[in-house]
């Protein structure tokens, strides 16, 4: 396939050069020519497809460094909420919780637990065993976007020691390192962990550091959902610095933020730590979604001991009045080293975004406090009741932050954009709108960043952080992942009230040289690949 994109204003993804007029020639899956100023004037009769880019910006395809399409890709290989944003590449296996590797004996309990994060699908065969088998299943699914798989710490721990909350023995540690080494050899881009989720929540700093010693020889990245994004956030950032310092790996903080008004005063210290890391020579970056509210599974409100052993044991504990009383106390008052979402975010700021059963449909879109009033109960009991009745299949939206902080983080040199998009009946609007919102609201409307800087944070920066070869930039010889957008109209349409709305202004998208979006509509073409480091 040969394609000519003519008369577009090109933003190359590097962040430094101002946009310029150029024609782009695509041959097969690569950019064959960028003709600036009409010096080489490709003739129209030589192309199977010609697109007039007048009035449009041509940019590299957008890269989502924190995605949760691990399961959804089997139900919707076109990944419409992502493709129509201009996303051409996603990093999955996030937060240390993923589909594989997964021992047979833990499939059912893990599937229940994971459903609140990555969803569930009857089309998915959960008996992959290894990460490489999962990669092959992704290839067979023929996705519309490129997928980069990360090795998930929680799954490695399950393979080595199940739900055991103790420190791994030297044998167990050796087995986790062996699995990680194999996954890196097979193309993983790094290691992820989620220190709010079981079983990764049980890992201490020494365990994480030892695992991360595997990464430098592969130039892999350690992507970390912090141990705390609230009361202990300073200590959590210092932990990342310690791990990177001792292991020699690069660190990437997932969905960076500070939660809870009581912690807003810590923001300046967070910025000082980023500066200190750079001065020390540590390679630490972060991604961010452009909203002051987030999304996760409701089970995170329970204290760590309550979810120990997996979903089935968690549900069994919720049948005990005595244990419920203990859970409620811990949710209200916290534990040493565990603040808890109820305290950091507030039960009035937790909105139910999805449930499975019809009898609970009335709670979707309501906060725990509102549901408590509706049901003449208290928010902690409501949370436990919902988790139990829904068998753990409950997602929430959390209003945690400050718009000022969102803006300040965007301007940091360490930042690149992500969606952290969860798929549910009533998802966070970031799932449908993060990338267009970044351009429409913060670039065009507020002038917070230049177009060139913003596009860099959506493409080239991500490619640099994760060592993604030949993508992220518009350069001759690079893969033809390209977006054509209308700078006058691009924006998100998804809202908290109506989140399942596609954006506007993303006119054309190419993945590996093939057009997946034409005039804002998906073509049904699925040329994505499972990429390797």
Q: What is the assigned CATH homologous superfamily of the domain at 150-289?
A: Metal-dependent hydrolases
Taking pLDDT < 50 over at least 5 consecutive residues as the criterion, the unreliable ranges are none
Mean pLDDT over all positions = 95
Helix percent band: 25-40%
| Counted beta strands | 22
Level-1 CATH class name of the domain at 150-289: Alpha Beta
Global structural class: alpha/beta
Which second-level CATH architecture of the domain at 150-289 applies?
Alpha-Beta Barrel
CATH topology of the domain at 150-289: TIM Barrel
Based on Cα principal axes, name the global outline.
Answer: globular
Distance between the termini: 26 Å
**Helical segment count:** 19
As a whole number of angstroms, the C-alpha radius of gyration is: 23 Å
Largest sheet: 9 strands, mixed
Range of strand content: 15-25%
Describe the protein's architecture and organization.
- The chain has 533 residues and is an alpha/beta fold.
- Among the domains are: 150-289, Metal-dependent hydrolases (TIM Barrel), CATH 3.20.20; 297-399, no CATH class.
- It is 33% helix and 19% strand.
List the helices and strands and how they pair.
Layout: E1 2-10, E2 20-27, E3 30-36, E4 49-52, E5 57-60, E6 62-64, H1 72-75, H2 80-83, E7 87-92, H3 107-118, H4 131-141, E8 146-149, E9 151-152, H5 153-161, H6 170-185, E10 190-194, H7 205-212, E11 221-225, H8 233-247, E12 250-253, H9 267-280, E13 284-288, E14 293-297, H10 304-307, H11 311-317, H12 321-333, H13 341-344, E15 350-354, H14 368-374, H15 379-389, E16 395-399, H16 403-410, E17 415-417, H17 430-445, H18 451-458, H19 460-465, E18 482-485, E19 506-511, E20 514-518, E21 521-522, E22 530-531
Parallel strand pairs: 1-4, 1-5, 6-7, 7-8, 8-22, 9-10, 10-11, 11-12, 12-13, 13-17
Antiparallel strand pairs: 1-2, 2-3, 5-18, 14-16, 15-16, 18-19, 19-20, 20-21
Helix pairs in contact: 5-6, 7-8, 8-9, 14-15, 17-18
